[in-house]
Amino acid sequence: MPDTEVHGPIDYILIEFTGDKLTGRAAEELVNLVERGIVHVYDVMVVGKDANGSMYMVDLAESSGQAGGFADLNGARSGILAEDDLSEVAGAMQPGSVAALIVYENTWAIPFVAAALESGGQMIAGGRIPAQDVMDVLEALETLESTS
After folding, report:
1. How do the pLDDT tens digits run along the chain, 148 residues long?
2. Three-state SS annotation for 43-57
3. pLDDT value for 95
4. Using CA atoms, how far apart are residues 110 and 104, in angstroms rounded to an integer?
5. How far apart are CA 76 and CA 12, in angstroms?
6. Is 113 helix (H, G, I), strand (E, B) or coil?
7. Rounded to an integer, what distance in angstroms lies between the CA atom of residue 48 and that of residue 16?
8. Helix, strand or coil, per DSSP, at residue 14
9. Cβ(17)–Cβ(97) under 8 Å?
10. Which Pfam families did the record assign (predicted)?
């Protein structure tokens, strides 16, 4: 085992929702992943962008309902995300929407990472393919196969 603490890959996602509050199961499923030990959430920020394009923070500690189930992740504050990250988030958002910015560790990968390090392995490249890109390619392949 390496002398240093082993971590899984750390990712971030920005999920935008139309309207001025979060509803649905996204936060519930994230909490489920945490409880099952699949991910560890470092930070959660919920940001809104009003119809005029002005950005605002949603306080996860308030029970206004605007944060939806993400209020359950109120304690996820490691310091990885900072206030200056908000301007980048707002730049990616559409007016009249709210978004959750989540930094999480893929804890399921820690045993694999540890084994690779113990065996002398070293990460030399990595990346992420957006889920929508994968779905688009698979759909195109399915369409191609059905017409052949």
Report:
1. 445 788 899 999 999 988 767 777 888 899 999 999 999 999 998 888 999 999 888 877 775 666 777 877 877 888 888 878 888 888 899 999 989 999 999 999 999 999 999 999 988 888 888 889 999 999 999 998 888 7
2. EEEEEEECCCCCEEE
3. 93
4. 13
5. 13
6. helix
7. 9
8. strand
9. yes
10. DUF6325
101 CB burial (10 A radius; 0-12, 13-18, 19+)? buried
Gap between the Cα atoms of 144 and 81, Å rounded: 43
Residue 69 and residue 27 in contact, taking contact as beta carbons nearer than 8 Å: yes
Cβ atoms of 98 and 86 closer than 8 Å: no
Q: DSSP alpha helices (H): ranges in the chain?
A: 26-35, 85-92, 110-118, 131-147
Does residue 102 sit in helix, strand or coil?
strand
Residue among 45, 61, 44, 51 at smallest CA distance from 18 = 51
Torsion angle in degrees (nearest 10) through CA of 98, 46, 55, 86: -130
Would you call 145 helix, strand, or coil by DSSP? helix
